[in-house]
Structure formats: C-alpha cells, structure tokens
Amino acid sequence: MNRRLLLPCASAFVLLTSFTGCGKNGDGGIVIGEFASLTGKEATFGISSHEGTLLAIETLNAAGGVLGKKVELLTEDNQSKAGETSNVVNKLISKDGAVAVLGEVASSRSLEAAPICQQNGIPMVSPASTNPKVTETGDCIFRVCFIDPFQGTVMANFVTKTLKATKVAVFTDVKSDYSKGLAKFFKEGFIKNGGQIVAELDFNGGDKDFKAQLTAIKSAAPEAVFVPGYYTDVALIAIQAKQLGLTIPLCGGDGWESQTLLDIGKDAVEGHYFSTHYASDAASPGVVAFVSDYKKRFNGKVPDAMAALGYDSAMFLADAIKRAGSTDSVAIRDALAATKDFEAVTGKIAINAQRDAVKSAVILQVKDGKFKYLETVAP
Amino acid sequence: MDWLLQQLINGLALGSIYALIALGYTMVYGVLRFINFAHADVLMLGAYAAYFLAPAVCTVFPLPSLTGALIVTLLSVMICTGIGILIEFLAYRPLRQRPRLTVLITAIGVSLFIEFTCQHKAVFGADTKPFPQLLPVHDFNLGGLVIGSNDLVVVVTTLVMLAALWFIVQRTKMGTAMRAVSFNQQAAALMGININRIISFTFGLGSALAAIAGILYALKAPGIDPLMGVQPGLRAFIAAVLGGIGNLPGAALGGLLLGLLETFAGGISGLSNYRDGIAFAILILILLFKPAGLLGKATVEKV
Predict the structure, then answer these.
(1) Is the minimum CB–CB distance between A211 and chain B shorter than 8 Å?
(2) What domain range is B151 assigned to?
(3) Is B64 among the domain residues?
(4) Is B62 in a helix, a strand, or coil?
(5) N or C: which end of chain A has fewer CB within 10 A?
(6) CA distance linking residue A304 with residue B199, whole number of Å
C-alpha cells in the first residue's frame, strides 16, 4: 500500500516544488512565509488569521512596500494536522528562502514549527498562540498576543472587582492544556484577591452532558463559574446550566470567541463574560480603520480577534524589518526583540525578555446575540 | 437531598439515551450475532438528516412544534432506514458466509468510512453545527428540582420504543421469523423464510432506532458534528453488554445503570475527572460476577 502511494506522491512533490521554485527570490521582493490551518478542524481560526495577514501585506505593498521592496507572502496550509507543520515550515525556509515566518493560532502546532525556525535562525512570529512554552523554544520565537498566565489573572481580577464575587466554581476541560493552564492561573489570582473556590469540577472536551457537574456546582452555591473551554463545549454548558436554573454569570477566555458560540448557545449564553485580545466595536482609531478596511476587502465580514492578531503579526514584523534596515535574519531578530510601544490594532505592544507581548486584554460580554465591549485591562 | 434527586433525574435522562441506542445494538446482535459498529454513525446521520430537513419542514409546519418535530423525525427515520439497509446490502451481505470476525472488522471499517467521509468539507465538514430546536422547551420546577421537557421526551420515547420492539419481536410474524433466523439460519430458510428480507428488515429497524436516538441526543445537546456518535455509541455498546447482549430489556437496564453511574461519579468534586473510569470500573466488576450480563441467557430468550 505504502509503496504504491510512494511514486505518485514523489512525482507530485517534484512537480509542485519545480513550479514554486521558479524565481521566488529572483524578483527582489522580501519573502515572508506563513503557515496556517486553512482546512481541517481549526479552519475558522486559521482562515481568520490568514485573512488578517493578507490584508496587512496588501496594505504594506500599496504604500510602497518595506525598505523600497515589495513584500511577498507565501502561505502554506498545515490542514490542522500534527506533523504537517514541520513539512511546510521546512519548505518555507529551505526552499522558498523566507526571511521570517508567521504562524499560527494553535499552540501545539506553533510548538512544532518553533524548533525548526530556531535551528535555522529564522525569526518566527506567532499571532495567537497563548501557551507560555511557545516562545521558550529559543530567542528567535516571538508572539503578538498575551499569554495564559496574564489572561487567567485578568479574569480573576474582573470577577473580584467588577462582578464583586467572592465564591467561585471552576469548571475545567481536562483534555486541553489551554484550559488547564488558564484554570490554574485564574485560581491563583482569585485566591490572592481573597476569593474562595467553592467547587472544582472537570469535563472532557467533546462531552455532551454536563448536568452532573453543573448540579454539583449549583449545590455549592457559587456567585460565578469560570469555564475556560472552547466555544462548542461552552455553548452546551451554558444551555444545560440554564436548564438547571443556574443563573449566575459564566466567565471564560479567548477560546469562547466564535460565532458558533452564539449559534448554538443562543439565549443561554446571554450575559456571560470572557476575556480576549481585542473588541471589533472599540472606539480607538486604529481598530475603526482596521475593521473598515477588512470589511471592504472580505465582503463585509467583521474581523474577529484572530484576524486582528494575524494583521498585527505581519505589521509587527514589517515594523522590525524597517527598523533593522535590512532583511538579514539576525538584524530582524534583534529589531523584533527591541520592540517598544508598537501601536497594533489589538493594543500597544512591548516585547519583554521572554519575547512575549506585554499588552492589554479586553473583556467582552454576550449581549443581544453579539459580543459587546465591556472594559480594557492593562497589564 | 435535592442534590441527590436532581442527579437521579440527570442520570435517568442520560441513561435513557444510552438505553435507546443500546436497543439498536442488541437487536442486530440478537439476530445476526455480530456488533454493528456503524450503528453510532447512522445515529449521527439521523441527526444530520433532521438538521437539513428542519428548514424545509419549517416552511409548512412552523418549528418548534410537536407536529413539525414528528414529521422531521419520520423523514429522518425513513432516510436512515434506507441507509441501514444499504449498508447491510453493500458491506455485510457479501460476507454472509465468512467468519464473524471478518464481518466485525468490516463493521468497524464502515463506521470509520462514514465518520471521515462526513468530515470532508464537501459533505458535512468537521465543524460543529447548531441543531435547530424542534420541540417547544419547558422546564418543570418541583421544589428545588428541575426536569426538562426534552428529558421527559427521551424517557417516554425509550419506554415506547422498548415496548414496540418487544411487540414486534414477540407478537408479529416478522418477529417470529427474526427469532427463527437468530436460532438457525439454515433451518429457517428451509421453512420458507426469506433470510435476506429478514436481515434487511432487522437492519432497517435498528437504523430507524438510531435515527430517533440521534435526534433526541441532538435535542439534548444541540451541537452536532460527524463524530458525535462515537462517545454515546461506545457507551451504549457497553450498556448492551452489561444488560446481556441480545436481550432487549437488558439493554435498557444497562443504559440506565451506566447513565446513573456516570452522573453520580461526575457530580463529585475532585472525582469528576475520572467519571468514565469510575463508571467503567464498576461495570467490569459487575461483569466479573455476571459474565453473561445482568439479564443474560438464563432468564430471557434471545430476540
């Protein structure tokens, strides 16, 4: 079976590479590689961030490019699959000669690409991977989003100060590192604020029945529930919580932000809160301009946080190349590391010693079937 | 006390769904002596059929309403019955004379084929789709207890289906033929029973049950995806084994027991992580002492 597949695969590979190999570096543009999950399970995240990146590159080129050269974006799809990322990133670096690499949303796949970029000394900027481990890989890896410890603390402060809750239940997805990390940092922050965790329950991502845990949560009588899950699970949790008469606010992180949360949850998700990277209805001039450009380019679609971060990752990289004054990887890396006060759509970014972005988070509330901006929390 | 009763209600509602799915597994096993692993995927197809039919039905009979829901369910049941018969015809019939293991592995293959074909974006796509509300929802409050109308519908449907199946198998001509085929295929054929027709009928009936279970499951958790059948299917299979596979009331009992165990284990802080582990450990213990299942061979005759 394998041997039968080998020949067609090999010939397809040769064909593909011989096409893309033609003069990619010859026309003097600056080649930037991008890997994203354009198909497969997390396709909605990947498509959003890719569209944001594309818009940024088009905007840069319309304004005359970077260092007087056009920027060329080469995008590769990793199909939301483990293993595929290393193939495409190797290709972007060794075959296409990318001076820097952008990608991706899911932390697990960014972690796969990071060692390859690090070994080749090519700077990598992740738009939206919030797991702290991603940039720990080495000094070439950066990100333009905040990390989970910050997000957990932000929600802990929000629950204490704005919701004035002192008793909280935590409901964690034990299958996801993202959820466990956020829950841990939320608990630490909340206890430090003098709060009390009255119940800790777990679920497995993909479960459909949460009533057992929700009944236990209800009997512990908390004033709010922290549910750091992904949108499909959260929608079902909200529905079943409502059925059980659990009317207290649910809170979560950026994994909530998807139209699917509203489509499935409908009125059950009304009034709940989550933290994320930016609000499309915020009044700042940068956001307003970005939202209108994006809508013009993509048929009136409202950009979500992933799109904004995709846009920021490209602009952030372009800014560093400008300051470096060259397309040399080491110079770009140094310029990225030296970034202070970069004005991004998702807020002002400073890069710290761990190469993470220090920036503010926003808190949104679900209201009338939409995500409404509530407040900005500074780091 | 409220807490305990509420968990009892949650557990019964969840267990009824498992019971309904387990009925389909156990009936096919009763006749053919093999596990139709594609049952859980027919369940998923039933939910998707309802998902695509609902907007069309909605133009004639506004949803949510009882009539609308019944019509959507009926149409999905017809589609799934056809799919079930087709699966049997294409995948299992050519293997009728082969060892059981071959058919069993084919069943797993059919299951994977349906799951992964449906995940392709030209078919359903891998993302979760919001399932429409078919029935008006009302939550009954009794003191501190909450009983959802959907949960009541699930329990009642399961009971009705159990009774209907029992009637078909024990009291109709078709059922007598099914039992004859289950007993000895060759002898049944010699008595003038059309084996192929009986087996097709069994698969059609099982798939109809799967479609109903799929729709009820989707009403309970209104987010559907091509892999939605895997988890409940696995549990229902275990419920069928627990009750004594091939035995209809046993499947229902096994489903209820599993639902209750899962709910009580899941409702304990600190243990909820291990809810499946605890539930299955207890099941293994029960099977150690009663290997034929709770209502296995000794008490009730095979379907």
Answers:
(1) yes
(2) 21-237
(3) yes
(4) coil
(5) N
(6) 52
| B64 upstream amide cis, omega within 30 of 0 | yes
Nearest CA in chain B to A198: B269
Q: In CATH, what class is A149-276?
A: alpha beta
With an 8 Å Cβ cutoff, are B266 and A212 in contact? yes
Interface size between A and B, measured as CB pairs under 8 A: 96
Residue contact B262–A212, C-beta within 8 A = yes
Contact between B129 and B49 under an 8 Å Cβ cutoff? The reply is no
Cβ contact (<8 Å) for A199 and B269?
A: yes
Q: Taking the CB of residue A266, how many other CB atoms lie within 10 A of it? A: 17
**Contact indicator for B155, B12 with CB cutoff of 8 Å:** yes
Architecture of domain A15-146+285-359: 3-Layer(aba) Sandwich (3.40)
Chain B residue closest in CA terms to A43 = B127
Give the DSSP letter string of A12-54.
Answer: HHHHHHHHHTTTTTTT-PEEEEEEE--SSTTHHHHHHHHHHHH
Asked, colleague to colleague, whether A15-146+285-359 and A149-276 share their fold, the answer is yes
Rounded Cα distance, A377 and A152, in Å: 12
Quick check: B222 and A220 CB within 8 A? no
Q: Which residue has the tokens 């995948």?
A: B91
Structurally, how many domains does chain B consist of? 1
Minimum-distance CB partner of A216 among B225, B262, B268: B268
Select the residue from B7, B9, B10 to test the A interface by mutation, using most A Cβ atoms within 10 A.
B10
CB contact under 8 A, B272 and A202: yes
Distance CA A155, CA A162 (A): 10
Q: Are B21 and B255 in contact (CB under 8 A)?
A: yes
pLDDT digit string, tens, across residues A35-75: 998 877 677 788 899 999 999 999 999 999 999 999 999 99
Closest by CA to A225, choosing from A167, A170, A153, is A170
Q: What are the pLDDT digits (tens) for A183-219?
A: 999 999 999 999 999 999 999 888 889 999 999 999 9
Q: Does A243 touch chain B (CB under 8 A)?
A: yes
Residue A167 structure tokens: 């008793």
Residues A2-11 have a mean pLDDT of 50
